[in-house]
């Protein structure tokens, strides 16, 4: 596979693929996380963790690609406040897409619940000897920090994701520029 750089008129297949893979994973994980939390549907947890690990892998690839390739250049000059807001939103998205799965691993791993990825044990479960149906935390303090960071980051990610979508629609509908069409792989 040939890796090409982004230009002002087109984004590389790598950029587009990583964007949409990460976007679908984030939206699915936020949805499943909210569903589990609100409806106590913890039967979804193994899937949530598996796709969370997958998100971390693709997020690391995306960040690496962004470092190698640089930030996409635009062919339209936008007002300074829009450029600053876009950078803030993008940084929140990038930091969150890394922090969410890392904090989830910390929460689950140190909480003794273990982490599996589609049946492959990555962090072992730590059953309580007195009640094997329950978990015994390896470090409850770190597990609680992971849980807190996971919750705060989910809220930040929801806000940033909403702003990102609104911004993309503004570019397409109001500005009529190529920002959204480039991310859809069109010229």
Q: Main β-sheet, in a few words?
A: 2 strands, antiparallel
Strand-residue fraction? 5-15%
Tell me the series of helices and strands, N- to C-terminal. Answer: HHHEEEEHH
N-C termini distance = 21 Å
Helix content: 55-70%
Average pLDDT: 93
Give the count of helical stretches. Answer: 5
Shape: elongated
* Rg calculated over all Cα atoms: 19 Å
The strand line-up of the biggest sheet is 1-2
Q: Give the class from helix and strand content and strand pairing.
A: mainly alpha
Number of strands: 4
Low-confidence parts, pLDDT < 50 over ≥5 residues? none
Short overview:
The protein has 187 residues and is mainly α.
What does this 3D model show about the protein?
This protein is mainly alpha-helical and 187 residues long. Helix content is 66%, strand content 7%. It contains 5 helices and 4 strands, in the order αααββββαα. The protein has helices spanning 13-39, 45-69, 80-110, 140-175, 179-183, and strands spanning 115-117, 120-123, 127-128, 131-135. A two-stranded antiparallel sheet has the order 1-2. α1 (13-39) packs antiparallel against α2 and α2 packs across α3. The longest helix is centred in the last third of the chain and has 36 residues, at 140-175. The protein is elongated, with a radius of gyration of 19 Å. 21% of the residues are buried. The mean pLDDT is 93. This is Cytochrome b561.
């Amino acid at each position: 596979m040939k890796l090409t750089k982004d230009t002002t008129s087109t984004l590389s297949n790598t950029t587009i693929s990583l964007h949409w893979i990460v976007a679908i994973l984030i939206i699915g994980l936020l949805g499943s996380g909210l569903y589990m939390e609100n409806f106590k549907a913890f039967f979804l947890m193994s899937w949530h963790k598996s796709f969370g690990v997958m998100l971390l892998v693709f997020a690391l690839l995306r960040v690496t690609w962004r470092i190698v390739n640089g930030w996409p250049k635009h062919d339209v000059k936008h007002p300074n406040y829009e450029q600053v807001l876009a950078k803030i939103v993008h940084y929140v998205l990038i930091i969150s897409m890394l922090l969410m799965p890392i904090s989830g691993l910390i929460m689950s791993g140190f909480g003794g619940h273990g982490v599996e990825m589609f049946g492959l044990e990555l962090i072992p479960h730590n059953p309580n000897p007195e009640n094997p149906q329950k978990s015994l935390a390896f470090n409850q303090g770190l597990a609680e920090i992971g849980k807190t960071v996971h919750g705060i980051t989910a809220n930040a990610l929801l806000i940033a994701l909403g702003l990102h979508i609104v911004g993309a629609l503004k570019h397409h509908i109001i500005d009529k520029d190529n920002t959204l069409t480039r991310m859809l792989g069109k010229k």
